[in-house]
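Sequence in, structure out.
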Amino acid sequence: CPHCRMNYYPTAEMLDVLRYDGDRRRQFQRGEGCRKCFDTGFHGRIAIYEVFEATPKVRDIIGHSPDVELLREEQRRMKATTLLEEGLHRAEEGKTSLEEVMRVALFD
């Protein structure tokens, strides 16, 4: 929410959980909650998404051994960004909070 947004320094533990590899001394933003955002700290929505191209190699992995870890390895090899990485970029831009990224994108 632009009306109740405040800067803060996240804990080292939170950054570790999020596997954040950026500047750990930087400030992030989060909403405190106010009347304009109905005490949620958020106003509006923004999408984060993960696109994973179904290449012949990916289709082969799915067809022969649908192992999530093999798919993640292929995703890293293809240099595709993950949902978590996209969320962290939005938090760095001040468009969402690290807590919200953790809530929607961290499911390992």
